[in-house]
Predict the 3D structure of the following.
Amino acid sequence: MNKKLSLYDVQIVINNNSFSHLADYIDAACPSSIFVIVDSNTKTKCLPILLESVSELKNSCVIEICPGETSKSLQEVKNICEILLVNGLDRSSLIINLGGGVVCDLGGFVASIIKRGVNFINIPTTLMSQIDASIGGKVGVNFLNQKNQLGLFSNPQLIFISSVFLKTLSNKEISTSYSEIVKYALIFDKIFWHKLQKLLLNNKINLSPIIKKCINIKKTIVAQDFHDVNERRKLNFGHSIAHAIESCFIDNKLIISHGLAVFVGLICESYISYEKNNLSKVSLMEIVNFIFKLMSPIFLEKKYDEKILYYIKSDKKNKNGISRFTLLNSIGESVVNCHVSDVEVLNSFKFYRKNAKLYFTKNQ
Ligand SMILES: NC(=O)c1ccc[n+]([C@@H]2O[C@H](COP(=O)([O-])OP(=O)(O)OC[C@H]3O[C@@H](n4cnc5c(N)ncnc54)[C@H](O)[C@@H]3O)[C@@H](O)[C@H]2O)c1
């Protein structure tokens, strides 16, 4: 059975090569059965490494989903639950989520509701999930085209992070996840922000210390407000707009990665921070120029503005229909629950489009 754990009770093991901690955990837990949830990419690229390294998993039942955001759905929850029950899951079973944020969010949700909760382990295999999605206990799926509308706060027993899995990710997959790293620095740590200017533009980047730093920032913030009513909302910087863009893309059967949507959200919400709060013009342009060095900008078509606004209004953090954003007062200092109007959001889209156009023209 899944005991309610606080984030400080959750073991987060950051280990480059050795899987012994994971094997020891499974030996000690002695589960009645083990299920490993993968998507078809992690099935080929990560599962063989895991099975070879942890003999305790050789009789586990592997459940495969399709890669991508569309799998974060109630239909997929139903499919997985059926497989789990048909294969004899009971309350002493263990579920292992081996994959990126999609597998961790979906698998964590399934593990938390089935039979009122069974133990689960996250083994995040993308940079995005190692620094963010696997940690903090938010699990869930999308509903009615809207991001993360159904979910729970529920921590895994163990989060096992290994750089071995990052080797098969494309450069694009890695670099779009930099958006969350940039976010951590902007909301929390000015010194980290200055360090990132050099670190993230270096071709021979050593990600391990950056991953540890991001995990520490997330742990520190989540520990103060697990249920996301105040301090934790700092982590939402860039995400009010990013999630609405993702919802709009899902709605229009288009694809955008979470990381890329967050880059756009960071630019727009930095602009709103400049317009409404105390973020200086110099800091705004420092943020924008740095982000455009890290991302390949997408063209945000004006025809989607109204739909994105609609999805912003259904954000879980809003109250009485008023949009509540996290904004910056300066680099490294964020403030939660700021009321933002539709006009302010639309102006931020204009600002994004203007700067993205400048970037395209300069780089043609
Ligand atoms: N719960 C949270 O706190 C939280 C935080 C941030 C993001 N998220 C969610 O996480 C999701 C995004 O996560 P993501 O960026 O990891 O996306 P993802 O899970 O879709 O993974 C991205 C792609 O990489 C592939 N992949 C995964 N591991 C691989 C590996 N080792 N080698 C090669 N390919 C691999 C996947 O199959 C997929 O095609 C979104 O749904 C987002 O909402 C949740």
